[in-house]
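From the shared-data thread, chain only:
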Amino acid sequence: MRLSGLDIQHATGGQWHEAMPGSIESIVTDTRDFKSGQTFLALRGPNFDGHRFAASVADKALALIGDAHGIKLWKDLKVSQLEVTDTLVALGDIAHAWRMRLQGTTVVAISGSYGKTSLRSILEHGFTALGFNVVATQANLNNLIGVPQTLLQVPSDSDIALIECGISEQGEMKKLAAIVQPDIAVLTGLTHAHAEGLGGLNGVACEKADLLGNMNDAGWCVLGAGVAEVLKQADVAMSDQALVMDEHGAADTVVWSLDGRTLQLNYDSESAVFELQLPARHWAANMALAASIMLRYLKQTRPHGLSEVAHALSGWQAPAGRMHIVRGNNGSTVLDDCYNANPVSMQVAVDTLRALDGRRIAILGDMAELGEASQQAHAGMNVSGLDIVYLVGPQMKALADTHTEAIWFATTDDALRAISQQQFDSNDTLLVKASRSMRLESIVQVLSKKQEVADVI
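Structure, as tokens:
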């Protein structure tokens, strides 16, 4: 980024103390690994106050940004200081100001109850393979702190910025959408994920739909399979320009079929075939969704056919924690899917495991933030046809009660102790999945000697 001190003052409505900087090129919110010439913005939370750490970097900082209460701590610091009302809001305002300078960059905002991280990863891989300069959200930087941080890292010469937007509370999406103001807005799918904080499925739909209401004038949106129907039931209006995926295919969309690990994509009169690492239907659906987005975008920029897009997508590998294939102990295979979980993603992961050869073992932990639907959602998981099922956490007790052959543990530590005593071999594939709060990555670590992608399964 590169914004003047005056630009940032106008964006935030703040007031400079000491000299106004001529140009600011880097704003950070963490004093660790702080580099000379950066600007430090002090965030405030229930259990922390970033203002208290500013003195440690003041001698290297170009400027400091803080609120009225916080900058009282800085009265002896001889460095430019911008006083704002709320530093979190200011971070978003600054990021939006920079986003509006990215006139040559197509900004794609991706949200949904499931599939957004995988879709973002697939699009990043595909567009990069076609030669585009792509910047994308890293790790889980998809909230009111992470989204502005990602936008501020987008160089002005980027072709595409893929911004993942995640929410858990009412009003968050409206704020994120106003910051990002996307050219393309994508909703991958809608379910009860985070329903506890959003007011049920209708609440989830209404909150997520705020992303569609803040697009640029020439922007267009993409709705994953089933999204249009959920929005309709929630009385959310949809754009005529929407690219709508459904079970039977729709205009300008890519249709898919999966035979084992062989994925076939069809678009108008074209078809393309390539192999997935797993017989995962949700990967196949995301590939078709990504291909549909890419083909529509490419019509406006650099026309490519389905075969070129499919070739670009074919080398994709799942990111860590998202059905990531790990070589386990004694030649076993571990499917690390413990980054997060909701009823849809949990079921498709189990279905993928069920489609594999050999002994199939599921280690499933609680799904968080489901609200009143939690017990029913856990009890309703279909884990039939698997060889061994380990269930972890108090919510998974509901599933254990209906599947008496399952082995239930009250805590992750209990499961870790028991599973670490078991022997697995090359005939075994183990799926590990839960919400992040369950910390099942500790089980992945025990099951695998090293984090290494398997060549085949």
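The two ends are 43 Å apart (CA to CA).
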